[in-house]
Every structure is written in C-alpha cells, then in structure tokens.
Amino acid sequence: MPMLDRAVLDAPPRLHAVSQARETFAGMPVGFDAIARMTARLTNAPIGMISLLGNAEEELIGRYGVPQWFAPDRHGARRHALCAYVVCGNDVLAVEELLAGEVASDDPLRDNPLLVDGGIRAFAGAPLRDEAGRPLGAVSIADTVARAWKPGELAVLAEVAGMLRFEPDGEAARATLIEEPPPSGQTGRAWPSSMQAGFAGDRQFFTALLDSLQVGVVVADSTGRPVLVNQMSRERNRVPAGLSPEEAIASICSRLRHPDGTPFERHEMVFVRALVDETVQRAESILHGPGFLDQHVVAYGKALRTDEGELFGSVTTILDVTDRWRADRFRECNLRIATMLNHADTVEEAGPELVSALGEALGWPCVALWLANPAEQVLDLVAHHVGPGIALAAPIPARMERGASVTGECWQSGALLWVPRYAESRYARGPGAQEFSPAGDEPLPHTAVAVPIRDEDCVVGVLTCFADTVEHDRPLLTGLLEDIAEQVGYFLARRHSMELAMQLVRARDDFIALVGHELRTPLTSITTCSDLLLEDEQLSDDARELVEIVSRNVGSVQAIIDDLLDLAALESGHLRPQLLPIDLVAVVSAAIADLGAQAGTRLHTGLPSTVMLAGDARRLRQVVDNLLSNAVKYSPDGGDIHVELVAGEDFAELSVTDNGIGIPPDDRDQMFDRFYRGDNARHNIPGSGLGLTLVRTIVQAHCGTVALDPSKKDGTRILVRLPLHAAATTPAEGQPGVALRYPLRGAFRPLEPNRHVPD
C-alpha cells in the first residue's frame, strides 16, 4: 500500500467539498447502496463501498457486504478508512494482498478492523471527485482472499466513480450522474435530489453503466419480464434499433439454439431460470442466423434480492466465447490431421479425411486439396469436402491451371490469397469460378481462401476453402490453414525423402547382391587355382610366394564381400540372429584363444566363470573377433589389450581396451558408419571400414548398445551391452528358442567392477 499523505487528507478545499457533498447525499443511502451492490457484482467482489472522507471520519454513503459491526451508523474512524489510500493517490488503486511483506508498527493497516476482524485481504478503489478534480472519497471493492484485479474490473470502478462526480450548483449542491453523450449529441440528465425520483435515477445510472460494459447484460423483474438489455447484447445479437427490452429478447430467442441445435423455449432463458434456481453457471448456447457466423455464448444468471431477502428480479451476463471455441476446435483439428498424416502412406490416402476434418472445424461448405503435377504443369484435385445440404452446379474440376481462379492464382503467386467478398470479385465471374459454384439460386460464398503448400521454396499444392458467412477472424483462420498446409508440406517432403532413401537402399542392396554374386564366382576360381598351385611340389620359391600373396588378397576380398552381404541381410531383416541360451564367457574365451599371441601385444583378461544370455553365438563371435582384431591392428607398436566382461542384474558389458593410436575427436561420431575410417589410419593401416559397422548392426539386432568411451584419450575403449533376460518363444530348428524381453538404450556408463556374477 502507498503511504498516506496528511497534507492531501487535511486540505481545507477538499474538506469543504466533502462537507457539501455529505449534505447533498444525506437521506439518499438506499440509492447508493444499490450502486455499491451492482458495482460489487459486476466485479465479482463480495464487498462494495462508496465513501466520503472527512477530516476525522469516513462516511459510507453506499455499502454492500460490509460487516454490520463495522460503522453501524455508516461512520467510521478515518485511520481505518481504506479509501484514504485512494484519496492520497487520486487515482485508481489495486492491491492484490494487503498484508504482503512486513507492515510497519505505525502503519494503520496493522490494527485495521476490516483486516484483523473482517478478513479483508484484497482491495481496489477509484477516487470520487468534484468538478475541480479534488478527491472526496472513493468507490471501492474488497475481497477476503488475495486476488489479482482484472483490468475490466478496475475499468468498472473508474466508470462508476466518473458517473458519481459531485458538482455544486449555486446555493444548492447535487450529485450528478455523468453519461457519455450519445452520437446524436444529447446530453446526460442529472440525478434528481428528491427521494421520490430515486428509482428513476438508479435506472438511468445503471443503464449508462451497463451500456458501457463489454459483456452482454440482461436484467429482468421478478415476473421474468426483461426490463433492460444493454447495448453490447443488442450489437452482438444484431437486434434492430428501437426495440423494447421485451422485443429485443424475443428477437434473440428466435435465433438461440442449444449446443445440440434444438431451439430455446422462453422458460429456458437464463434470466428466467435464475428466478427459480437463484444461480445459473455457464449455460452454453449458440446464436444462429443466415449470413453470419454462429456465435457461441455462455451465460451466467443470478437472482436479485433486497437486503430483507425479497426477490425483485435477476441479472444475466452473456460472454461471447466464439473465438475461444473456434480456437479449441482448430487445435483439435490440427491434432487430428497430424495424427492421420502420421499414419498415412500417401496424401491421396489421407486427403478425404483431411478435408472433411478441416471443413467440419471451419463450418464451411467447401474445402479442396490440390497437388501440383509438374509433368503437365497443372494442379490435380486430390480430395474435396462439400458440406451437407450443398448442391453444386457442376463437379469440382479434376484439374486446375495457373491464374484466373483463386486456386490457380495462389499456385502462381505462391502467396496466401484471402477474398473477403468473393461474390463481387473477378474470381466469381471468370472461368475459374467453376471450382465452386452452387446449384440453382443459391448464393455464392462470402469468403474464399487459398493457401499454398510448400516443400521448402517450391509450391507443391494448394488448399482452397470457401465460407458461406462473413468472416472477420482472419488471423485465427489463416493461422489454422497455414498450419495445416505446413503439415501437408512436411508430409510430402518426408514421403519424398523416404522414397529416395528406399530407392537408395534398394540400389545399395542390388549392388551388393550383384557384387557378391559376380565376384564370388571368379574369386572361388582364383582360390581353387591358388590352392592347386600351392600343392605343386615343383613350384619355385618365388612363384610360391607370389601365389601366397594372391591367395591372401583373395581371402581379404572374400572377407569384405561376406561382411557386406551380412550387413545387407541384417539391416534389411532378411537375416535375423538365432537367439538361444549361450555362455558369453565361452564365446569370448574362444575368440581370445584363436587370436593367439600377437607380436608386441600383451593380452589381459577379466572374465567371470559364466554369463548366460540369449544370443546368436556365431554373430556374437563376429563381434568379439572384430573388436580384438581392431585392437591389435591399431596398436602397431604393440602394447596392452584388456578384455573385460562384467555382468549385472539385467545386462552384461563387454569392454575391449587398447593403448594404440586411438580415434581423433572429430572422427568419433562417424566411426560406426559404413566404410568410414579415421584420418590417422586411412592411409597407413589396411582395413575396409566395415568392422565396427558390423559390430553395431549385430549388437543392435540383439537389442543391445555399443559405444566409444569418450574419456579414453590414449587409445580406444569400446563397450558392448547385451541384455541378459529373455522369455520363451517359438523353438528354432527343434531347439528351445528365446526372445528379448526389452531393448537396451543409453549412454556410455560402465558397471562397477565388483558387480560380477557369482562363480
């Protein structure tokens, strides 16, 4: 809260004006109580006050919801007046939490009875001024819970305070309700000073107040007869000018529909229901009419009672939630289209459901999806949606050329095209008007929209929509349509990329199959001839050495071909691992034994007695052989090679570590790619670049993972993880089969060394 300024509070001119106002307002508490009550209800606050602040006391000339024990005679001490803070600031004041933070010992808020005993926590007020702008008091509201006051609520306070401006007039003084002059130039009328004319003054005040609100308001008497329909209700419901409240309600009721489309009966109107139910919360309805968009509204009704509890009417507030309703529908439509595109193989397959979903969300009679045909330079109609009850003069054309029509011009320009008065535009009279033409005497659409579908900078299609209502929500609608067009564009780009990838895979597999078949035959002949020559005892030593070189190189080529064919078969799914219960320790030990002693290298092993898992022993042996071969190959100067196998509760980890040339940091992300070799080994160490690719493919086929240890700088450490647990599945070739229970994924995180399977 701001600090109190006693110079402002005690200013003689202000106190003199307060004294005049007090004399004028004397004897009129009932009218001001009604204003306080209406102000509180319009701002959804439990407490409303209209106060004059004198030199020693606060006078509540209007109050609603104020505890009876506080100022029972409408007079209270000035030190307890919350309106004093408004008077000092002479501006609208809003406080979300009165006791937020520390309160000074001399702050009047510490012992304010409205806070201590009344529980008030939030406060807002607007100054009540005289014609010179001096603050005489305040129109204020309060709540017993902390709350953030909305701008609309503060605007109501300011408007009420402005209408209650005090103006002295000659010898007598009176309170004047200032109304904004209507366009005709008529001036406002003063609040009568007599008690007998109080009701007329209240009515004039409330009419001016409610007409200034941005929500619809309907006030009815205790018999359910409408006595006031504010300006916003009339404008939003297109009520003809000059109709009485009763006639305005009849006009609205004739177009009002339940959410299921059934018409409203008069006894179902909220202002009537509130007289019986006391409170009506969020009653939904639709305002329907030809030529304009359906309006979705929610209404809240409340019975009005006197302080003695006597029913004297009801008040209904009506909120237009069309924008929010459409935004919700559009989000659902967007999600639905994203889902169907995610499951569709082609746009042609998803097209009919896509345009239907979009037409239903928009509520428009026609939606059409076109895709470009580059070969013939035309747009082909993929799918279209025509609303129920709509008859067309001719079928929508199967093809559309550039220009002339809304669709063709959008394709030609590559920019969104919005035509707000389609029937008056050149598009309705040209040859392209055939893209949507109602049969008979049905009117042409009010609005046409065409949105380009892009694949990067290329326009690959157009989404065209026609509306039979005047549309004003252009940003909302174009946003939805551009989102849908973007989704279709992404889908087309993704499908194009997938088709190219599939073509590349097929070409690669065909090439590998061709190479394998065409090379194996001559290699077999070369190998056979080499073996026969080597068996010849009369072969000279020089010739024998040359034949051995040929045989060795043929073996290398044969190994590369075998690896390529294995990769192609594993990646395509034609070759699947035969998962059987095996002892991984036995597989690793056999590979180490076959490796034998290598010049300059020292092999260190850390293996448990046994590790049982579900795997293909032959394929896992390929993994171990490749890892050991790489460790030896890339340690040209010898060194230590460590092979460790650790088993946890759910998976086993095999690590192979060497102190060789290592892998440069820039090459590590690509070391498992086919044919890729590091810069430090590409030119001086022989190899095909297929070993680690084959390792990764086999490990992934076992639902495992393989990774490089990024912390290993002087050499290389590779970690393979394989799941231990499996569930029974169909036996393979008469042997008990197994299936992996779950795949393993994750980063490089080795197990603790002491977590071994017990011997």
TrEMBL record:
Domain Histidine kinase residue range list: 514-726
Intracellular or extracellular location(s): Cell membrane
Listed EC numbers: 2.7.13.3
SMART domains: GAF (SM00065), HATPase_c (SM00387), HisKA (SM00388)
SUPFAM superfamilies referenced in this protein's UniProt entry, alphabetically: ATPase domain of HSP90 chaperone/DNA topoisomerase II/histidine kinase, GAF domain-like, Homodimeric domain of signal transducing histidine kinase, PYP-like sensor domain (PAS domain)
Taxonomic superkingdom: Bacteria
Catalytic reaction annotation: ATP + protein L-histidine = ADP + protein N-phospho-L-histidine
Keywords: Kinase, Phosphoprotein, Transferase, Two-component regulatory system
The protein's enzyme class: transferase
PANTHER family with a match to the protein in the record: HISTIDINE KINASE 1, TWO-COMPONENT HISTIDINE KINASE
Protein's recorded name: histidine kinase
UniProt source species: Actinoplanes hulinensis
